[in-house]
Write a structure and sequence with these properties.
elongated, alpha+beta, about 15% strand, two-stranded antiparallel ribbon
Amino acid sequence: MECAQSVGIDLPLKALVWEDGSAQVWLGYNDPEYLGKRHEVPSCQVAATLRKTLTGLAEAVIAK
């Protein structure tokens, strides 16, 4: 919301974890940079920082 108040419609960020029929576990979430583009603020530094954080968290979970 720091870059565009309209982003508030997509907050708080959510993640979905599910298991498919093959027992494969998936993690899905909207990329913060996608949200920035959606709300016409593609160069928002907050989105880039949040993307880096979420990617790191997802990679840490996968590594375990």
